[in-house]
Design brief:
Length: 372
């Protein structure tokens, strides 16, 4: 069966995700702000979940419609053939959604309306007065924007940024999917050497190593759709086997991480080991003021501390000045720095060759790119 599918992503990473969806076998790929829509069968759903590094989740589009009233939502949801997806014992879980620039603004009320419509439909189709809800869980998401609601069945379950290697993180981690997008924008290849002088929990280095070694980011975790009765479990087994067979065992990639905090160093090492990238990454304790370029050309990719409060902002600016002293001139190296600070270039001491707007959660940032 061919499904209409959708995958949200960080704003600015739509082209990267579109390429990954195409590689997973998706068709009819359409890019819009913060989302990629496409079509595909069960195999595409499994591959996209396992291999897409910047997607937040993979959803089956159940409905897209105008919704100005609760009756609009209720009547439309009653028409969705949810029994084709959910068995009589399964549980439809309405995940908290979003309402933007729409007449309906109460998220709990929208949730209740969607749930009630699905329950009545299932009771009618399965001839039950009460649904057991003891089987598999089917998460349903909704987005109401400008009175247009999109209702999706979430095949991923836990967000795809949860790779399984980062049980803990430092105080201000960068999300795995954003780190993977930055790595892709930096065009990291298997022959590259990457350095992160503010490695924190190691996320950028780990995502870079996985990209270089062709390691599918989510090949060591499970997904909600694996428990659904209408999906063939063997398709998922085959997709996992395919991903593991594609890993480059003799990858020449090398990465080096530094951090002034010994706890961050230990955390990065532990996360790298869990991710299976520890043979490609070397992490040591070092202050940024002691940074120096190695003899070979490298790509420095980093997420230095940035802050919004005045005292922290002043500390960040002094840190950026120190970075400028040790990272410039870059000679034949490449430098990628993400920060929300609007005066980064001024503090750093040189204007970037390019910059790209990205969002770290709700925080607008820029990825600055330096080359000789």
């Amino acid at each position: 069966m061919i499904y209409n599918l959708t995958a949200p992503c960080h704003f600015g990473l739509e082209k990267t995700l579109g390429f990954e969806i195409k590689r997973a076998g998706g068709d009819n790929i359409r890019l819009s702000d913060g989302r990629v829509d496409f079509t595909g069968d069960e195999r595409v759903i499994a591959r996209a979940n396992i291999t897409c590094s910047v997607a937040e989740r993979i959803g089956i589009v159940l409905a897209r419609l105008t919704a100005k009233t609760f009756d609009d939502i209720f009547n439309a949801v009653r028409e969705i053939p949810i029994e084709e997806y959910a068995g009589k014992n399964d549980k439809i879980h309405i995940v908290k959604g979003h309402s933007l620039n729409s007449q309906l603004t109460s998220i709990p009320a929208i949730q209740r309306t969607i749930k009630k419509a699905f329950v009545l439909r299932m009771q009618e189709k399965y001839k039950l007065t009460t649904l057991p809800e003891t089987g598999a869980v089917l998460p349903v998401h909704f987005l109401l924007m400008k009175n247009e609601i999109t209702i999706t069945l979430d095949t991923s379950g836990t967000g795809l940024h949860k790779r399984g290697y980062r049980a803990m993180s430092n105080a201000a981690p960068i999300k795995e999917t954003l780190a993977a997008g930055i790595v892709d924008l930096a065009r990291v290849r298997e022959t590259d050497t990457v350095i992160d002088p503010f490695c924190g929990s190691g996320t950028i280095l780990i995502e870079a190593a996985m990209k270089a070694a062709n390691m599918a980011p989510c090949m060591n975790r499970s997904f909600a759709a694996m428990d659904w009765g209408f999906f063939d479990r063997k398709i998922w087994t085959d997709a996992f086997d395919e991903a593991k067979a594609a890993v480059k065992q003799d990858c020449a990639f090398k990465a080096y991480g530094y951090d002034i905090d010994p706890n961050a160093v230990r955390l990065s090492r532990d996360n790298s080991y869990k991710a299976g990238t520890d043979k490609l990454i070397n992490i040591t304790q070092r202050d940024i003021k002691d940074f120096h370029y190695p003899s070979q050309n490298v790509k420095v990719i980093t997420n230095p501390p940035y802050a919004e409060r005045m005292g922290e902002r002043e500390e960040a600016e002094e840190l950026y000045r120190t970075m400028g002293r040790v990272l410039l001139p870059i000679e034949d190296n490449r430098l990628f720095i993400i920060t929300s600070h609007d005066k980064f270039e001024e503090c750093f001491g040189e204007k970037a060759a390019k910059n790209r707007k990205l969002y770290n959660g709700m925080l607008m940032c820029r990825l600055y790119y330096y080359q000789s």
